[in-house]
What does this fold into?
Amino acid sequence: KIGQLSYLVDSVQNRHKDIEKSLSLIDQMETAIVEKLDNETDSFVSSVDNLITYLQARKTDIVSRLDRIANTKLTRLAQQRKQLETDLPCLEKSVNVSRSFLK
It folds into this structure.
């Protein structure tokens, strides 16, 4: 019986050591997973922040370009309006002169 008891004690002690090794490995794996998650999260957040910064810069550039294009078109239209408004009285005078020749 002492031999059997000694064998059982040795078996339990070996199993205890195996469990401690397993628990240590689980701790290491948990730590590795958490660290990887933290790194991936930081990388993702950084990428999104960079993308947002890029998009904001592009938005500013595009809005500015659209504003310049619209202002250029409005300036041209204003010039054309002014020219047409200037031409209108001249055409009216020309029509009046031509009518006077017809009479």
About this structure: The chain has a mean pLDDT of 95. DSSP finds one helix and no strands in the chain. The radius of gyration is 44 Å. The CA atoms of residues 92 and 98 lie 10 Å apart.
